[in-house]
Amino acid sequence: MMIYRRRRQRSSVPGGFYRFEGGQRQTVYGFGEGDYIRLRDEFGNVWTGHAEKQADGTTRFSFRDSEGNIINGISECGGILLRDEHGNTWRGFVD
């Protein structure tokens, strides 16, 4: 038997416009509201994900596209760093 913990209804993660740039001028951008975020890359792929506030003040991000690719990252002091399973990195911010 599995016991699931109920998720909080309210999130302390701010919403806004997210913009990330990769090493080879790759861009990913989109909007987020609370802990739900939806991004689009330069090829038109849609990345959906969420943000979770951690106890130490950081925020962890996780995104997935329709092909099953995953991007994870962390935010500290306004800047966000994301990394995919191939080792590509994106740096960004929230407006």
Brief overview:
With 95 residues, the protein is mostly beta strands. The protein has one domain: Beta Barrel (Lipocalin), CATH 2.40.128.
Keywords:
95 residues; 57% strand; 0% helix; single chain; Lipocalin; globular; mainly beta; 8-stranded antiparallel beta barrel
Textual characterization of the structure:
With 95 residues, the protein is an all-beta fold. The chain has a single domain (16-94), classed as Lipocalin (Beta Barrel), CATH 2.40.128. The protein contains no helices and eight strands. It has strands at residues 16-22, 27-33, 36-41, 46-53, 59-65, 70-76, 79-84, 89-94. The chain is globular. The termini are far apart.
> Which structural class best describes the helix and strand composition?
mainly beta
| Beta-strand content | over 45%
CATH architectural type: Beta Barrel
In total, the number of strands is 8
Q: How many DSSP helices?
A: 0
Q: How many domains make up the 3D coordinates?
A: 1
**Per CATH, what is the topology?**
Lipocalin
Strand order of the largest sheet: 1-2-3-4-5-6-7-8
Assign an overall shape. Answer: globular
> How large, in whole angstroms, is the Cα Rg?
14 Å
Set down the secondary structure blueprint.
Elements: E1 16-22, E2 27-33, E3 36-41, E4 46-53, E5 59-65, E6 70-76, E7 79-84, E8 89-94
Antiparallel strand pairs: 1-2, 1-8, 2-3, 3-4, 4-5, 5-6, 6-7, 7-8
